[in-house]
Amino acid sequence: MYHNCLNTKHKEELLYRVINVHLNRLNEEDRDSLIVEWKALNSSKKRLKTVEDKLEILASLAKGNPAPDFKYVNLEGDSMTMSDFKGKVVYIDVWATWCAPCIAEHPYMEELHKQYENEDVAFIAISVDSSPEPWKKMVDKKALGGIHLYAEGAWDATIMQKYAISGIPRFILIDQEGNIVDANAARPSGDIAEDIDELLSLKP
Description:
This protein is α/β, with parallel strands linked by helices. It has 8 helices and 7 strands; from the N terminus they run αααβββααβαβαββα.
C-alpha cells in the first residue's frame, strides 16, 4: 500500500511539472488528456488554482485575441508599448544573453531584418536578463538589428506572466491590428517567413 501511494505521489508530481513547463507546447487534445489524468491524482487546491490560472492565460492567447500589452524601455531609455507598432506585423523574440539557443537564433534574425527591411514588419527583441548591462553590451558588441527592449524582473517580468512563458527563446507573432497570430511562433531558423508573408499579403 505504501508503495502504491509513493508511486501515485511521484506520478502526480511528474505530471504537475510537465503541465507547468510544457502546457503551452501541447496540442489541445494532449493537454486536456494530461490535465484529466493529473486532476485524478492531485489533492492540492493551490496546485489546482495554479493550473487553472495557467489555462486561463493560454485561452487568452488564442489566435485572434488582442495581444497582451507591454511597456518596456529601449536602449535609449524610452518606453515603448504594443500600440507603438499598430499597423505593422510584429515578431517578438523573448531572449537573454545567457541563453545559448537564443544566441543561436541571432544570425537568422539578422537575415529576416534584411529580408523585410522595406516592409511594415517590426522585429522586437525583449531581454529578460536579470540586469540590463549584459543586454546592452551584447546588443552593442554584435550590432544586433531590430528594436531592443529590456523587461525588468527576469522570469517574473510581465511578458513572461502574460504570455505563460516557461522557457526561452520564445517567439510571438502579432498581426497589424495588434491581435495574436501565434503566441508560440516558429523560430527565425524555421519557417516564420511564410507566416509573415501571409500577413503582409492581407494588407488592405
